Amino acid sequence: MKGKLQIAGAVILLLIIGWLFTNHQANANRRAKLAALQTGLTNAYDKAVASLTPRPDSDTLITPVLLRGILKVEQESRLSMMPSFIRPEDVLISLGAVPNGSTNLIIVVHFEKALFYGIDGKRGCRKVSGQELSAWPHQPLTETSDGRNRG
C-alpha cells in the first residue's frame, strides 16, 4: 500500500511540474509577443512623427491618413510595422487627428481575447481598458473614414 501511495505521489508531482513548465512557457511566449507588438507600435509612431512637416512639435497633428499610409496592408493580410501575428482587422486608428505629444490614443491593437494595447501621441504604450476603448473615437484600419471597408 505504501508503494502505491509513493507512486501516486510521484505521478502527481510530475503532473504539477509539467503544468508549471507549460504555464511558464506560455507566459514567456505571451511576453515575447507583447514586446514585439510594442516594438511595432513605437516603430509606427516614430515613422509617423518623422514624416510630419514642417517639424514634429506639439502643434503638429498625426492624422488617420498618415497612419493608414504607415500601416499599409502588404500582401493579403500582412501589415507593415507590425508583427506577423497582428492582422489588419485587429488594428484600430484614431477617427480624428491627434496632436503630437498628447496622451490621446492614436493606434490600438486587439492583442488577444479581450486585451487591447495602444500607443498615444507621447509615444507611450499601454494596456487599453474596455471603458477607454469605448470612449475613444476610432475606426478599424480596414475601414475608410466614410464607413466603407477597404479592400
List the helices and strands and how they pair.
Elements: H1 2-50, E1 61-62, H2 64-70, E2 73-74, E3 78-79, E4 91-94, E5 98-99, E6 105-112, E7 115-120, E8 125-128, H3 130-135, E9 138-140
Antiparallel strand pairs: 1-5, 2-3, 4-6, 4-9, 6-7, 7-8
Molecular structure report:
This protein is an alpha+beta fold and 151 residues long. It has one domain. It has 3 helices and 9 strands; from the N terminus they run αβαβββββββαβ. The protein has a 5-stranded antiparallel beta sheet. Strand 7 and strand 8 (125-128) form a beta hairpin. The radius of gyration is 21 Å and the shape is elongated. It starts with a helix and ends in an 11-residue tail after the last strand.
Distance, first to last CA: 69 Å
Order of helices and strands: HEHEEEEEEEHE
Strand content: 15-25%
* Helix/strand structural class: alpha+beta
Overall form: elongated
> How is the main sheet built?
5 strands, antiparallel
Mean pLDDT: 83
Helical residue percent?
Answer: 40-55%
Oligomer: single chain
Count of helix runs: 3
Low-confidence stretches: none
Radius of gyration: 21 Å
Total number of beta strands: 9
Biggest sheet: strand arrangement: 8-7-6-4-9
Number of domain modules: 1
In short:
Helices cover 41% and strands 22% of the residues.
Keywords for this entry:
41% helix, 9 strands, five-stranded antiparallel β-sheet, alpha+beta, 22% strand, two-stranded antiparallel sheet
